[in-house]
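REQUEST ID: PR-0412
SUBMITTED BY: lab tech R.K.
PRIORITY: routine
TASK: structure prediction, single protein chain
INPUT:
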Amino acid sequence: MMKRLIALFLVVAFPLRAEVDITPVTSESGLQAWLVEERSIPFVTLELIFAGGATIESDDQAGAVNLMTALLEEGAGDLDAQAFAARTEELAARISFSSGRDSVSVSARFLTEDAEAVIDHLRLALTEPRFDEQAIARVRGQVLANLRRENLDPNTLASRGFARAAFGAHPYGRETNGTPETVAALDRQALVSAHQGAIARDRVFIGAAGDIGAEELAALLDRLFEGIPETGAPIPERAAFLAGPGLEVIPFDGPQSVVAFGHDGIARDDPDFLTAYVVNEVFGGGRFGTRLMRALREERGLTYGIGAFLSAGALGESYQGRLSTDNANVEIVIELLREEWARMARDGISAEELERIQTYLTGAYPLRFDGNASIASIMASMQYQGFDQDYVNIRNDLIRALTLEEVNAMAARLYDPEALFFVVVGQPVGLN
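STATUS: complete
OUTPUT:
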């Protein structure tokens, strides 16, 4: 066991490379994966992303996918929750399940010598989850406790308010993990239906890294997906961004307000998305030195931190930002945001800012590839997001090649100060 624990620890020391060698793999049954082979440590990481996530739920069963995913490690086949956990530990494996708005993710880390046994164990969880009533009651209680905490969190309330205004009746407009009312009403059959709808071959993206070859991986994948259905529940149509310019105040007691702001964004498959990403990193990347951080924290002390981000979901997009500030400062903060938005649209960024962000982004990128787990996750995520296989090796070249004219043309396109929508959670002075 000690030898196995040492191997689990050493995996984080995966050497950084100037280039990532990706091997596409197609199994006999047609499953496709991207593999980064690394034989120096007898360890493998497998990452699965199933598209769909919470978007496949009906409104009255919101939260079913989240609860179902949390129960996948709570017993499968003839193993109850304790027996399943004991078997996982016996194999020195790390298996985890998670879900979100657009996907369900599965991660498995295991020693090469135990690959087939771990894959059989994982297949049991994916094909024969027990959903025992006792486990449902216990995990449901945990989910409900989390939802109650979220209902007291102004940041969560701001995000929910923005999503409702932005996407309305589309699944993007509701709470990803459901509400206390919908989760409390979920029965075992709802979880079975969520499982059947979310886990399917027609929506999976697979990444792998470590001590395994293409033929070995192909065989393991066919073994893993034996019994998993071909198709899952329909994925909804794309969401239109509905929020127009304006302001919504959600009353919340406290000395500060949380401000969520933004407007329509840019799709992930837009050919100029990378340019928009670079522009935002200059403007609102959440670090010291960005436009927003300088204007609102460093120069005026109006907030501890502020960031903006491109929210490019599988079914819709927006451009959003967040900050907290004293209730008395909300009005001036909103005015400054409009001014900074307008300045960015009008003037763009400087040559010095572009050079600085190109250096930062290209230098930081290799640090993402710091272990088998990170690499397998990136391999699956790249496929899920529609990247070409060579993107990981040309991404920095694409950033270095961006010109000031291209970047500032994107700034003029992306930033629309007249379209900004604000959600304020708190007791803002002068806005109630």
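NOTES: The two ends are 61 Å apart (CA to CA).
REVIEWED BY: pending
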